[in-house]
Amino acid sequence: MGATEIRVRRVTNKPKLAGGTVSMNKGTDEARTLNWYAGLILIAMAATVCNAVLVYHCIMSGNLVLVQNFSPSQLTNEAYSKPFTVQDTDDIIKISVSTSLNNAWMALDVAVVRSDDKVIHVYDSDLSYYHGVEGGESWSEGSRRDSAYVRIPQPGNYRLLVHAVSAGGNISDAATSSHGAEIQVKSGAVTPSFSIFAFIFSCIILLISFIAYSEWRKKMLKTDS
């Protein structure tokens, strides 16, 4: 509003026009809200990335102390692994199983055995992997891999006692294993449970932030129109 117009309104006792002030306040409020949403989304994105890195670190953590392949006949008859050493009290070891299942299943039992032949933990896993093509589209279900985290109370030398049965196709029962497996053990592993929970939580916050911003944006566009 110019100086001449202000003087004229003072002489004629006319009130000031409020339109420009309302528009300015509205623009300021929208800018503040936009900045708030942008900050929230950036924080949620940063938390999601950090938690993803933390999950990866947990999964990859630990020192490899055992890698051993077991043949189908060894798994059928039960077999001991080579010994491995756990150096710390209440250490956590990660047992990872990898198979070559192809439209087949495997029931695997793994026992952690001390040097005095005492079993301190038993881990069982049901693995299956099936795939094919239906209606021109490829599909797959299950996994060839599995893993477990086990807390070892005392340091010392340990072995794994493994046994498995497996079969292919639609066979639902088996007395022998038709497939082999590779088993790895890492000591000093970190369980990723909390990190996975934090990652999922940050993803939810990020999604909610995007949805809230989208709804706010739609509301602003309707108001402007």
Main sheet properties: 6 strands, antiparallel
Q: Report how far the terminal alpha carbons are from each other.
A: 26 Å
CATH topology of the largest domain: Jelly Rolls
Mean pLDDT: 86
Shape: elongated
How many strand elements?
A: 10
Q: Would you identify the CATH architecture of the largest domain?
A: Sandwich
Q: Decide which structural class fits the backbone.
A: alpha+beta
The CATH class of the largest domain turns out to be: Mainly Beta
Q: Poorly predicted ranges (pLDDT <50, ≥5 residues)?
A: none
**Order of helix and strand elements from N to C terminus:** HHEHEEEEEEEEEH
Provide the domain count: 2
Q: What is the C-alpha radius of gyration, as a whole number of Å?
A: 32 Å
Describe the structure.
This protein has 2 domains: 3-56 and 196-224; 64-189, Sandwich (Jelly Rolls), CATH 2.60.120. 40% of the residues lie in helices and 37% in strands. A hairpin with a 4-residue loop joins strand 5 (104-114) and strand 6 (119-134). The strands form 2 sheets. Strands 2, 3, 5, 6, 7 and 9 form a 6-stranded antiparallel β-sheet that branches. Strands 1-10-4-8 form a 4-stranded antiparallel β-sheet. The protein has helices at 3-12, 19-60, 72-77, 193-224; strands at residues 63-70, 79-80, 84-86, 91-99, 104-114, 119-134, 137-143, 145-152, 156-168, 181-187. It is elongated. With 225 residues, it is α+β, with helices and mostly antiparallel strands. Helix 2 packs antiparallel against helix 4 (193-224). Keywords: Membrane, Transmembrane, Transmembrane helix.
